[in-house]
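Q: Could you predict the 3D structure of tRNA-uridine aminocarboxypropyltransferase?
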Amino acid sequence: MMLQSYATDSRYYLTEKLLNILLSYTNRFAYNTSLIFVATKSILSTMSQNAVYHLRQQRLALSTKPFKARGCRVKRCQYCLLPIPQCLCDETVSVQAKSQFCLIMFDGEVFKPSNTGKLIADILPDTLAYQWSRTEPDSQLLAVLQDTTRQPYLIFPDSYAQNDRIVVNQPSISDKPALFILLDGTWPEARKMFRKSPYLDNIPMLSINDKARTDYLLRIPSREEQHCTVEVAATVLEQAGDIEASKQLFAHFNLFKHKYLEGKPHHPTAQRILSQDPQ
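A: Sure. Here are the predicted structure tokens for tRNA-uridine aminocarboxypropyltransferase:
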């Protein structure tokens, strides 16, 4: 039985998830305490490292009123934000990669169940996440961008680049691992972050344009080169040689997509896709 709670305190929520895991493994393995310990430790490690989840908790601590949007009355897992019957936390398997991601997230994006940036942090534990600010950029973000041990790339379509901007279509394979910077929000929000973040102006742009898969059906892009955050991340991982991480991220995204649509059984898109490709 899935325990339900709507508390936003991270410590309470992690305890709740651990109780759910204990119940699951107790029933499955007849009180085998060693297996319970290993499973619980593994899930706790994955959950505690998700930067997007921690950023959401920081925003909740500063909020003066609850975030309300479509679907706000649905009882959701407070970690993956999917409806509780569709929770994918117990099926998340993290991997390691040479490349690292830095998500710069528009205000409110961390609260959206349809956000796919959090999937990157699910799979790659060293993913970084910061809230975007036009006037007061996070000092830790600025320090990350100045780290000389990594080669930063701002991932954005080259059609938005000024004439003097360095634009590449493939990350270089060198001794410096890549730091891929993603502007996470709707496309109007991403364009705003791109235009109004002068601290990103000197960072080379990586433009993948039509190389990314276009399987995302939760938000419809207005232009062909506009892809969802996680599709872009998985594509550049493949380009950078992190093949296994790319495969795992695509698989995690596919699982998320189906579970998200399962939570919308009456939506025409969900009915069509789930009938064609059951998960």
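Q: Anything worth pointing out?
A: The longest helix spans residues 10-29.
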